[in-house]
Amino acid sequence: MEPLTISELERETGVARGTVYYYIRRGLLPPAQKASATRSVYDRSHVELLTEIKRLQAEGLGLRVIRERLGRRIEAAAENGVDLVAKQNEETRRMILEAAARRFALRGYERTRIIDICEEAGVTTQVLYSHFPSKHHLFIACYHIYFQWMRDQIEPHMQQTADATARLAWRVYAAYGIQALSPDLQALARVETIREPSEVRDLLRETYAQMLSDVGEDLAAVRDPSANPGLFDDELVAYALLGALDNMQMRAAWDAEYGRLDVMRNLLAIHAAVRAAYAGRVDLTSDWAAVAELAAELAKTTPKTLGPGS
Fold it and tell me: Which residue has the higher pLDDT, 185 or 102?
C-alpha cells in the first residue's frame, strides 16, 4: 500500500486533519503508523474509510451508527500487516540514491554537493544523513543504481541470444557504461566489499552476486560432468572473469595502446577457453595433476609479510 502523510490525506479526501484525529480517537479510523515522534503515515484504507464515512454522514447517519456499520472494515484495516514506515523509508532511500547517482554522473564526486542532492530528491539533509552517514557512503551505494541502469539497457539483447559468450559481450558493454558514468566508482566499490560489515558492503556484495549469477549459470549449462572433474567452481570462475575485465580496463586506461575492442576480444577469448574446458573439448586433468601437489602445499601457508629478516 502507498504510504500517505497527513497533508496528502487531507488533500485527497477533503477531510481536515483535526477531524481525522477525532475519528481515530472515536474508533472510526485505525491509528496511523508512527514514523517518528512528530510524524505519522496513513494508507489507502484511511482514504477509503473517510470516503465512506462522508457518504454515510450525507445519508444522515450518526458517528456511532457509522462505527458499527464499518466495524469489520476498521478492524481489518487496523490489522493490516504492511509496514508503511518501512515502505516510506525505502521509497525515500530510493529517491535519494537515484538523485545522487544522476548528480555524481553529471558533476563527479568532488563537485557534487549534498545540498544539491537533497534539493533534487526533495528531502532535508537530516533525512539524507539518516539513510546515508556520509557522502562517501552514498557515492558507493550508487554503484547498485548504475548497475540497474545498465542492466535495464542490455536485458532485451540478453534475452535475444542464448550464446554465453555473446551474452558476456553485452555484460562487458554494461561494465563500460558504469565506468563512463563514474570512472572511479568501480575501484572504490571493490575496496568496499572487503571492509568491515556494513549496509553498503552488503549492498555491493548483493550487486556483484546479481551481476555474476547468470555468468555462472551460462557456464554450468555447457558443463560436461565427466570433463575436468573438480577443477572449476562456477561462482569463482565468474568472479575471475570480472577480475580480468577490471584489470584489463585499468591497463587500457593508462595510455592509448589498448582500446575497448582489445579488452573485449581478450576477455571473450578467455571465456571461450573456459567454456571449452567446461564442455570437455579441452582436457586439463594432466596439467592440473602436474601442479596439484605444489598448490596444496602452498595453500597451507602464507608468505612472510614483514620483509627479509623479520
Answer: 102
On whether the CB atoms of residues 250 and 257 are closer than 8 A, the answer is: no
Domain 83-132, CATH = 1.10.10.60
**pTM, rounded to two decimals:** 0.69
Asked whether the beta carbons of 96 and 121 are under 8 A apart, the reply is yes
For the chain, what is the largest distance between any 2 Cα atoms, rounded to a whole number of angstroms?
95
- In this predicted structure, what is the pLDDT of residue 55? 93
CA gap 252, 89 in Å, rounded: 41
Q: What is 6-81's CATH topology?
A: Multidrug-efflux Transporter Regulator; Chain: A; Domain 2 (1.10.1660)
Which residues make Cβ contacts (< 8 Å) with residue 125, sequence separation at least 6?
Answer: 114, 115, 118
C-alpha cell at 68: 458499527
pLDDT of residue 88: 75
Q: Give 152-172 pLDDT, tens digit per residue.
A: 999 999 889 888 899 999 999
Residues 6+ apart with CB under 8 A from 218: 164, 167, 168
Task: Look at residues 116, 191, 113, 185 and name the one whose alpha carbon lies nearest to residue 149.
Answer: 185
- For the four alpha carbons of 61, 67, 72 and 76, in that order, the dihedral sign comes to positive
- pLDDT reported for residue 35: 63
